[in-house]
Amino acid sequence: MTQATGSPTLRGAAVGRGIGIGLMYGLWKPRVLGAWRVPASGPVILAVNHSHNIDGPMLMGTAPRPVHFLIKKEAFVGPLDPFLRGIGQLKVDRTTADRTAITHALGVLENGGVLGIFPEGTRGEGDFASLRAGLAYFAVRSGAPIVPVAVLGSTERRGRLISALPPLRSRVDVVFGDAFDAQDRARSSDKGGDGRRGGGSGLRTRKVLDEATVRIQGRLTAHLDEARRFTGRR
Hints:
By secondary structure, the protein is an alpha/beta fold. Helices cover 34% and strands 15% of the residues. The chain has one domain (42-231). Helix 3 (80-86) links the parallel strand 3 and strand 4 (90-92).
């Protein structure tokens, strides 16, 4: 697929990953578990629980591949606007069906890139209790596998210098889960000759998306519970 004008670039996301590595490992102590579960090539969606402001940058700095995140438009203010665009991040208007954001996000996947999504839509308890339909739509439309990611430890309050950030030099666990399909299809049958995922089922009815959302929520919640047990984090 040809890169559309104004769309995010892999080079930009790679720069963002370098910045994320420097900041996250410089200010905190990330412990990354299961990064090998992220496919080494081809389109993939990282579905991340969202309870803290650093969850996005933490994933940018710890994921094994550059990530293009869908980020609320309110974050694109002042000098942050050209900066976030420059590092390959996607601005999305959460109050409407943002066609530009949808087109750019699908473009990332069609070009074999990594799309990062907070499926809860906003920062909350980070427990995947309430999922929006966006994740299911992108997964069904593109056929890209979903990798669940749990960011744990960023909500601890003791020792904080700034209330919106975890204590500096504290440990934050980032746990990647097994890749899965939104519609529970055999993954090997959806690959083309170049090893990329197929174009999805083509069916995006409300029933299909609702069923996919229920399945996705079950897998994300199960991964979060397992990650909490394994790390001893809440």
